[in-house]
Amino acid sequence: MRKEIRIKGITLGQGRPVVCVPVVETEKDQIIKKIKELTEKKVQMIEWRSDTFLGNTDPKQVQEILEEIRPMLGETIFLFTFRTRQQGGCSDLEEKKILYLNELAAKSGCADLIDLEFFEASRPEKEIRRFQRMGVKVIASHHDFSDTPDERIMRMLMEQMEAGGADIAKLAVMPKSPEDVLRLLELTFDIKVKYPDLPVVTMAMGPYGVISRISGEFFGSCITFGAAGKVSAPGQIQADALNQILDVLHESLIQA
């Protein structure tokens, strides 16, 4: 049985979904400035999408950013992500180089969470255990920017990530109809019921999928991504508006 995942006073998978704001700036100064702004606004969670950083081929530059932002983070949960082009990201690096960047983040004292593209990794279970030993939690993720797979395939993807030891399992898909969104929401609920100790993150991208970004407390998705300016994926709502919507929905639930 997994232990409850509690990070900086927030228990993932309980109550209102956590709003994570992606940072997708391309230059070092812009990245640091954006993270400073977000921490001053006291956002719950920040994701640094390091694949958008133009200097990501130089580990020293990545480490310098991590060192500079560490004192800023305080009670803000920090997720380090390198998203490959195959998974909808902006850069391609050899797997060993991506794993090295993840290791830098894990050892930096900054990262609470590391995103690992489960089905792009050669030995994902080994990497999950390695990062966990470094003291961080691992989000195993899979992104399909072209389609919403058959329900059986989506279930298989989530169950493989669960079996691989992930602390959190994340699945993002691209719906072509409202029915696709309903299938994802039903799957999310089913996985949460079957694996109650596994925090789940799911989203349908694009305009059809907006409902999936606000309904996590109803169906079981514990993190939702909201933009502060630039979006990191199609269909993202601006974080301020997203927080307002989630507050209204949460109040309706606790009063029911």
Task: Summarize this entry quickly.
It is built from 9 helices and 11 strands. The chain has helices spanning 28-40, 59-73, 95-107, 124-133, 151-163, 178-194, 210-214, 216-219, 239-254, and strands at 6-7, 10-11, 18-23, 45-49, 77-81, 113-117, 137-143, 168-173, 200-204, 223-227, 237-238. Keywords: Amino-acid biosynthesis, Aromatic amino acid biosynthesis, Lyase, Schiff base.
Task: Work out the strand percent.
Answer: 15-25%
Helix content: 40-55%
Counted by DSSP, the helix tally is 9
Structural class: alpha/beta
How would you describe this structure to a colleague?
The chain is α/β, with parallel strands linked by helices and 256 residues long. 41% of the residues lie in helices and 20% in strands. The chain contains nine helices and eleven strands. Strand 1 and strand 2 form a beta hairpin. Helix 1 runs parallel beside helix 2, helix 2 packs parallel to helix 3 and helix 5 runs parallel beside helix 6. The relative contact order is 0.14. The mean pLDDT is 95. This is 3-dehydroquinate dehydratase.
Tell me the layout of helices and strands.
Elements: E1 6-7, E2 10-11, E3 18-23, H1 28-40, E4 45-49, H2 59-73, E5 77-81, H3 95-107, E6 113-117, H4 124-133, E7 137-143, H5 151-163, E8 168-173, H6 178-194, E9 200-204, H7 210-214, H8 216-219, E10 223-227, E11 237-238, H9 239-254
Parallel strand pairs: 3-4, 3-10, 4-5, 5-6, 6-7, 7-8, 8-9, 10-11
Antiparallel strand pairs: 1-2
